[in-house]
Design goal:
7 helices, 150 residues, mainly alpha
Length: 150
């Protein structure tokens, strides 16, 4: 069986104005999740909570909830905004499925929290993995921006 490379479908951004997606800013967030490996790490960490015949991956469900919050949602039902854009967000679990997963994770307490922390530490977003860069300085001869009006 082939391992999935990401929880979200590949999205190509074009500025031609033909196909407009209301949550286009989420593409950057999804790419960050993909590039850091957080999607695969959280899916692996939450695998013990996946039911044998489950259709939806618990890791993807939790990432969808986080994505909805990042896009301005304030409750589990706000994941519906992702469900409206399947070409961007892929298959999104139903509200009852999301609620059951949250209940199951809450009942697991510290064990579930530790699994999420473990996923975070295994992805590229772990503290210490991003090196601070020295500030960029303008190079000699490059055009400068003037604030004075002419």
């Amino acid at each position: 069986m082939r391992e999935p490379i990401s929880s979200y479908p590949r999205v190509r951004v074009q500025a031609d104005g033909r196909q407009v997606v209301s949550q286009a800013g989420a593409v950057l967030l999804m790419e960050t999740v993909r590039k850091t490996g957080l999607d695969q790490a959280i899916s692996a960490a939450l695998a013990p909570w996946r039911k044998p015949r489950a259709v939806h991956d618990p890791g993807k469900i939790l990432l969808d909830v986080a994505m909805a919050v990042a896009l301005g949602g304030d409750c589990l039902a706000d994941v519906a905004m992702l469900r409206c854009e399947p070409a961007v967000f892929g298959p999104v679990a139903s509200d009852p499925t999301i609620s059951r997963l949250i209940d199951t994770l809450a009942a697991s307490g510290e064990k579930a929290l530790e699994a999420v922390r473990s996923a975070r530490s295994k992805s590229a977003i772990a503290p210490g993995r991003w090196q601070a860069r020295p500030p960029r300085t303008p190079t000699a001869g490059s055009p400068s921006i003037s604030t004075a009006s002419s």
